[in-house]
Amino acid sequence: MILYYSKSPKSDMFSKIKIVTICILCLISCKEETKTDIVETEQATDISPITDSVLESAIIYEVNIRQYSPEGSFAAFTRDIPKLKELGVKILWVMPVFPISEVKRKATQELMVEDIQDPEERKKYLGSYYAVANFREINPEFGTLEDFRDLLRTAHENNMYVILDWVPNHTGWDHVWITEHPEFYTRNAAGEITDPLNEDGSPVGWNDVADLDYSNEELQRTMIADMKYWVTQEGIDGFRCDMAGMVPTTFWEKAIPELRAQKDIFMLAEWENPELTQNNLFEMAYAWETHHLLNAIAKGEKNVQDLDNHMNHLEQKWKNGGFLMNFLTNHDENSWAGTVRERMGEASEAMLALSYCIPGMPLIYSGQEYDLDRRLKFFEKDSIPKEKGEMWPLMEKLGAIKQSEAALSGAKNPGSFVRLDAGSEKVFAFKREKDGNTVIYIGNLSPGNTTFGLEMGGKYRELVSGVDMELRSDSKMDLGPWQYLVLRPQ
């Protein structure tokens, strides 16, 4: 499908095709760069619109451009896009691509770049992606707009969708609005623009950004216009919205329908409030509660009964719509809370398989597929490993299972989820079914050996190993520490 820049209804597509054809013929004798721009934009949007059915089996990948490669560039990541198809990746969430403010730029959690005296030392600190200086420009650290367009085009050619990380709650301190529209910002009692504050007036701790005031209607219109630019002019497929719940829901009720009037897009909220996923707003939210619970189980602080209660809680909390992104790590967790191995140790693989099998969409964070086992620097250059270890082949298998087994559908029309009694307080077991397909997950979520038994005997294929096995309803089977099975009845 070719995306056109007009805001007229989709029913005018055939007339638009005629107009574009005539324009291209007329431009043959014009500047070569003009013709190239038209061709590149058409190629970048040559993919079917994202649909609910696509989301059911989708896997989302968080792209940290700065740390993905030694070059830290769009071009370096673009070269690897075809590889990610091996993992079943369908959606690329690209962390903010915009210029980063230099005023009050962070060097560490505690220090600003301006606090560092040595000018050479200052150069290595690149600041936070989330301190945006201009929503319509590209961070030169990553390359050019043409490089980004090539990334988008390559993703579409590989049947992947691209969503941009959007930062609606605040901007950097030298964003163009600071001087052009100071009325867009929150003021303190002294009338000064302030960083984000808690409800009691204390600082949130994000002193490298300035808080936006959504009571200003012109701010809302301008923010929507900037978001529309990336949808209509560049052909992206949606947004991951940073701290979406810190922005009034009334803004999303205005913005998202306007964006969807231009194109079918996918919206991910960094929040965990069902209100944001209702009435055709965001499709997906963060499974923060699940994430923290899995960490606690891995550390022995919580158990299978807590997980059982949690799944019942989720069923009630999200009964009116919306689904969740399941994750073991992301850019925040890796840099500040620790690596997957730090937090989960030997439980890591069982928890990864669980995140693919429960309702929702699994996330892969840059480097996770390469067994990343160190905290990436956040404000300066770093790089992920690029050697395949244990995670790549496991993710490859889990991705294939997620895509081929209808029972694991996890979005708006998910497979059923039924908890199974495995006869052990250490074992979490459940069955999912859809369209005649059945998948069973059985996991020993403890560091000790245990046994389990299910009333449903029969022959099964263990989908991760590919081994055929038989379960008898009158006997027990052993499971080692953190051992799991993903079964499909034969």
Describe what you observe in this structure.
With 490 residues, this protein is α/β, with parallel strands linked by helices. The chain has two domains: 49-415, TIM Barrel (Alpha-Beta Barrel), CATH 3.20.20.80; 419-489, Sandwich (Immunoglobulin-like), CATH 2.60.40. Helices cover 33% and strands 17% of the residues. The chain has 16 helices and 18 strands. The strands form four sheets. An eight-stranded parallel barrel has the order 1-2-3-6-7-8-9-10. The longest helix has 17 residues, at 217-233. It is globular. The two termini are 40 Å apart. The model is unreliable at 1-44 (pLDDT under 50).
Please give a handful of descriptors for the protein shown.
16 helices, 2 domains, Immunoglobulin-like, six-stranded antiparallel β-sheet, eight-stranded parallel beta barrel, globular, alpha/beta, TIM Barrel
| Name of the level-1 CATH class of the largest domain | Alpha Beta
Secondary structure: helix percent: 25-40%
Largest sheet composition? 8 strands, parallel, barrel
SS strand fraction: 15-25%
- The gross shape turns out to be globular
* CATH fold label of the largest domain: TIM Barrel
Structural category is alpha/beta
Mean pLDDT: 91
CATH superfamily of the largest domain: Glycosidases
The number of helical elements comes to: 16
- Count of the separate structural domains: 2
- Rg over alpha carbons: 24 Å
Task: Give a quick precis of the structure.
By secondary structure, the chain is of the alpha/beta class. It contains 16 helices and 18 strands. The protein folds into 2 domains: 49-415, Glycosidases (TIM Barrel, Alpha-Beta Barrel); 419-489, Golgi alpha-mannosidase II (Immunoglobulin-like, Sandwich).
